[in-house]
Specification:
By secondary structure, this protein is α/β, with parallel strands linked by helices. It has 3 helices and 4 strands; from the N terminus they run βββαααβ. The protein has one domain: Zincin-like.
Length: about 110
């Protein structure tokens, strides 16, 4: 079961869309310019996987908001490596807590 959530401090207006169809092997996508994170219901089969994908995409959004996406645009491998490094380091201290909020999530 996917919990509806998200009150992420510093990410006001963030939209999370849970998709039933995304590319093969795609767990999530971030579109920083739209303040949008899309998560795959097909790939993320447990709440732990969903949390991990959400955290990963939040790190991409953080890089975008900090202005680093433009700098790293020519080499997306560097951004992905940076996100994975941060994710592996920070996931030890980050815990997701959920509360239901209406109208900020959508399932497609």
């Amino acid at each position: 079961m996917i919990k509806k959530v998200l009150s992420v401090k510093g990410f006001e207006g963030l939209r999370i869309v849970y998709r039933t169809k995304m590319g093969d092997g795609v767990y999530g996508m971030c579109t920083g310019s739209q303040n949008l994170i899309e998560l795959s219901l097909k790939q993320n089969t447990t709440q732990e996987m969903m949390d991990s994908s959400l955290f990963h995409e939040l790190l991409h959004l953080t890089i975008y908001k900090a202005g680093w996406s433009e700098i790293l645009e020519t080499n997306s491998v560097v951004e992905e490596g940076l996100v994975i490094m941060l994710e592996n380091s920070l996931k030890q201290i980050v815990k997701f807590e959920y509360e239901e909020i209406e109208n900020n999530t959508k399932v497609n």
